[in-house]
Amino acid sequence: EIVLTQSPGSLSLSPGERAILSCRASQSVSGSFLAWYQQKPGQPPKLLIYYASRRATGIPDRFSGSGAGTDFTLTISRLEPEDFGVYYCQQYGNSPLTFGGGTKVQVK
Amino acid sequence: EVQVLESGGGLAQPGGSLRLSCAASGFTFSNYVISWVRQAPGKGLEWVSSISSRGLRTYFADSVRGRFTISRDNDKNSLYLQMNSLRVEDTARYYCAKDVTNSDYDYGALDVWGQGAMVTVSS
Q1: What's chain B's average pLDDT?
Q2: Mutate which of B45, B51, B102, B106 to disrupt the A interface (most A C-beta within 10 Å)?
Q3: DSSP state of B88
């Protein structure tokens, strides 16, 4: 099973700042099958990025994904107030599918 | 509108059973892998099970294999999760989710989620 470790556990930034979220895999993620989700309280997760860098439909271009192998990054270039929530990475290249523990983003 | 809607959650005793359903609309259900993902209260996400577009292949997390069964009825645009031998640790909100691509092989990125069905296992 591929274990995904996300860092930092939480971060608090001001609107307009850049957020960089990291996801490290215990072994290489085949095919860059890595996704990122945003979850707000009381809501289901929302797909942001898949194939490590492809934005899902309707996702603003301030969200970008990068990385390959074992190291992946989600960057939010200019934080907006609505970007608060918990962000999860997920690998789907190997069974079982696994999620990281999440990074909580607070917008001041 | 593309959507999925779960139903069937509730309270069960340890060792008991529940069946979750997921009704899909707004897309060609039979073209997509569909998955169940759960989230225990205050915790992170855990993949539970997936089923291929025609139902020929099923996949399970080790934590539920042998106790849970996934199935689908493409004529009814519906997905099911039969949960037997329930344990306290199965307590969670169960989400039904559609794959972003219509491929049976690189499945797992989930772009349409329901609001979830809460399952509580307690004596």
Answers
A1: 97
A2: B45
A3: G
